């Protein structure tokens, strides 16, 4: 039920105050200079209330993007410890650019304007941001909007749904050829740092990330079965890592003289509760082997590339590396072209028989 009250303002002009009372909903009121505007507001508001749109609109006009980001940082980010620091930085950037806007005024076009600013802008190191970095900025904001829609009901829909993400590059694929691998293996083996060679071999033979490898504890390793269990991984899921060949042999020898003051496989010499820092030894080995444009993370690309060239499927590579989807390993597809051709040839031979 709605009613309109007419009254005179201080300047002698008419004002029309509207009240809408619907069972089960709080009273809504507004004031207009024209009765026709008041009548239209009644019609629109009653319709919006019945359809469940009205109160979300009110919340969208009451809260700013800064309010949304502050609440998200306080309530949601603590549940994402691995990405908390990076996402906080991303969200603070958006807050600095768009924080003063109420949510009702945040449009896809406005977000696109600042997406393009990110793409053309530079980092604190005076380098242009990559499309992949901009995608992470957009993803952080997108999830905040999703929470505001689904859980807080501050907005009816996310403006991010209509914002196109920049096209990311296919990703870097740098792996060691046979000659490079022989030289780098020798340099690591000759390093004064005795942990370097075994870590290098394990990195290539298992595909573990550096953080996963260096935080390994002896309770995670089953040398009898040849298995490592990773409890803390990038995607948050436990992963079983098979051990075999040289890596397993080296680790069994390494385990014969383990330190008793720490559970870490590769502890720092001076701080046994912290992982060792291999950076200096690694850079020296690269220089000695005369290997350019190669980083520790590229050892993981070596694992994937060698698997592909030895006939592993993309699904198998993804499982070894711990990827949930195949999108991250499609960059290695060209390396397994020969294997795919053999599979197709084998299928055709079984169906149609050998061709003379």
Describe this entry's structure for a reader:
By secondary structure, the protein is mainly α. It has 3 domains: 50 residues; 98 residues, DNA polymerase, domain 1 (Orthogonal Bundle); 167 residues, Orthogonal Bundle (hpI Integrase, Chain A), CATH 1.10.443. Helix content is 49%, strand content 8%. It has 14 helices and 6 strands. It has a 3-stranded antiparallel beta sheet, with helices on one face. It has a 3-stranded antiparallel beta sheet with strand order 4-5-6, with no helix packed on it. Helix 8 packs across helix 12 and helix 12 runs antiparallel to helix 13. It is elongated and about 95 Å long. The mean pLDDT is 86.
Write the layout of secondary structure elements.
Elements lengths: L1 E7 L5 E7 L7 E5 L2 H16 L3 H9 L2 H11 L8 H15 L9 H13 L10 H22 L25 H12 L4 H13 L3 H5 L6 E2 L4 E4 L8 E4 L2 H11 L23 H11 L8 H12 L4 H8 L15 H16 L4
Antiparallel strand pairs: 1-2, 2-3, 4-5, 5-6
Helix pairs in contact: 3-4, 4-6, 7-11, 8-10, 8-12, 12-13
The CATH C-level class name of the largest domain: Mainly Alpha
Total individual domains: 3
Residue runs with pLDDT of under 50 for 5 or more positions: none
Structural class: mainly alpha
Helicity range of the residues?
40-55%
List keywords for this structure.
DNA polymerase, domain 1; three-stranded antiparallel sheet; 356 residues; hpI Integrase, Chain A; 3 domains; mainly alpha
What is the gist of this entry?
The protein is mainly alpha-helical and 356 residues long. It is built from 14 helices and six strands. The protein has three domains: 2-51; 65-162, DNA polymerase, domain 1 (Orthogonal Bundle); 178-344, hpI Integrase, Chain A (Orthogonal Bundle).
């Amino acid at each position: 039920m709605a009613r309109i009250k007419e009254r005179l303002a201080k300047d002698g002009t008419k004002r029309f105050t509207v009240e809408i009372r619907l069972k089960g909903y709080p009273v809504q009121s507004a004031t207009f200079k024209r009765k026709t505007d008041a009548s239209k507001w009644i019609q629109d508001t009653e319709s919006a209330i019945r359809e469940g749109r009205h109160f979300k609109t009110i919340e969208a006009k009451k809260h700013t993007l800064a309010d949304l980001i502050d609440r998200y940082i306080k309530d949601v980010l603590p549940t994402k410890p691995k990405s908390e620091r990076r996402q906080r930085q991303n969200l603070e950037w958006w807050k600095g650019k768009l924080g003063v806007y109420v949510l009702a005024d945040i449009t896809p076009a406005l977000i696109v304007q600042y997406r393009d600013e990110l793409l053309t802008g530079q980092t604190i190191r005076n380098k242009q941001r990559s499309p992949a970095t901009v995608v992470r900025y957009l993803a952080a904001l997108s999830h905040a909007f999703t929470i505001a829609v689904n859980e807080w009901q501050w907005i009816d829909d996310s403006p991010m749904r209509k914002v196109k993400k920049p096209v990311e590059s296919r990703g870097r694929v740098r792996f060691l050829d046979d000659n490079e691998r022989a030289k780098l293996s020798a340099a690591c083996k000759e390093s004064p740092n005795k942990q370097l060679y075994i870590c290098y071999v394990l990195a290539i033979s298992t595909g573990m990330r550096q953080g996963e490898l260096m935080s390994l504890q002896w309770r995670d390793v089953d040398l009898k079965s040849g298995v490592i269990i990773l409890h803390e991984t990038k995607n948050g899921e436990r992963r079983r890592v098979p051990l075999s060949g040289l890596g397993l042999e080296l680790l069994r020898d390494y385990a014969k003289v383990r330190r008793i003051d720490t559970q870490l496989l590769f502890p720092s010499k001076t701080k046994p509760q912290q992982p060792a820092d291999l950076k200096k030894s690694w850079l020296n080995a690269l220089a000695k082997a005369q290997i350019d444009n190669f980083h520790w993370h590229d050892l993981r690309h070596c694992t994937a590339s060698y698997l592909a060239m030895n006939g592993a499927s993309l699904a198998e590579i993804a499982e070894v590396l711990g990827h949930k989807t195949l999108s991250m390993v499609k960059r290695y597809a060209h390396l397994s072209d020969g294997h795919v051709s053999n599979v197709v040839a084998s299928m055709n031979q079984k169906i149609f028989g050998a061709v003379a």
